[in-house]
Amino acid sequence: MGVPLLQVDAFTHTAFGGNPAAVCLLEAASDDAVWMQAVGAEMNLSETAFVAGRTDGDLDLRWFTPTVEVDLCGHATLASAHALWETGRLAPDVEARFHTRSGLLVAVRTDDGIEMDFPARPVEPALVAGIELLGAVDPVATFDNGHQLVVELRDEAAVRATTPAFAELAGAADRVWVVTAPADTERDADFVSRCFGPRYGIDEDPVTGSAHCALAPFWGTRFGRDELVGHQISARGGRVSMHLRGDRVTLGGNAVTVLRGELLA
User: Fold this and answer.
1) Distance of alpha carbon 118 from alpha carbon 37, whole angstroms
2) 186 CB neighbour count, 10 Å cutoff
3) Residue range 106-132, pLDDT digits in tens
């Protein structure tokens, strides 16, 4: 019998928007990282999630890009929780408790979608080499948190105009690159962003939950607010709500299943 597999578009209300993730629903946790990485390469999405139940009622969760296993992924966690509730593996009123390489992550259903409890990842000012590889950008400031390099630009137009040299960017730093700026006044969001991870097999990620773990405290400090909305302006686009709570951040969004099947190998 095959492994149930769903493809879910996360951080969107509509199919073919947001960020697609594959979700493999395993009968038991697997230590076969070689197999999981092969599945991630086969799915060729920014992340493939592997979910397995535990004897204590919680869940194990791992995430793989087409080339590497990652420590934290927001959209594939959202997709996994959505898949568990949609398939009846979790009752609608039961929270999803995921044990991951970034600790315990909890997702709950709300009237507005799904909310997830994630670690905040504040950034610090830093000199960043290789800025020219993002194209003709004029940074306001640059930051690092050990996971992402955040480049603040002046406005939304500058974020849209960013044209990375992906092959060169892949070798510039062992980080994901995030460009961000205040949102245009007519947009229903506080800030916009784009996210590039060619080092990890993802040239541009459509919507990046883990990046918003850094963007939430960054823009929260700038705006003096704990409640924020971010719009990732990739080609697919997506919306992330955020609520800062000390060293944690609640990320909120919606998800849509676009494919169900079985993994036979």
Assistant:
1) 24
2) 5
3) 999 999 999 999 999 999 999 999 999
Query: Which residue spans within the chain are E strands per DSSP?
Result: 3-10, 19-26, 47-53, 59-64, 69-70, 96-100, 103-110, 113-119, 124-125, 141-144, 148-152, 176-182, 191-197, 202-205, 227-232, 238-245, 248-253, 255-263
Write down the pTM of the prediction: 0.95
**Same domain flag for 237 and 129:** yes
Cα–Cα distance, 45 to 201 (Å, whole number): 9
Told to judge if 156 belongs to the known catalytic residues of this protein, a careful annotator would answer no
- Co-location of 79 and 189 in the same domain: no
Whether residues 22 and 130 share a domain: the answer is no
pLDDT at residue 1 in the model: 72
Based on the fold, state whether residues 83 and 23 are members of the same structural domain.
yes
CA distances from 113 to 2, 81, 109, 256 (A): 30, 11, 6, 11
- CATH number, domain of 14, equals 3.10.310.10
Task: pLDDT band for 186, please (50, 70, 90 cuts).
Answer: confident
Cα–Cα–Cα angle for 250, 46, 28, rounded to 5 degrees? 75
The catalytically annotated residue of 27, 47, 95, 156 is: 47
User: What are 139-181's pLDDT values in tens digits?
Assistant: 999 999 999 999 999 999 999 999 999 999 999 888 999 999 9
Looking at the structure, tell me whether residues 175 and 194 fall in a common domain.
Answer: yes
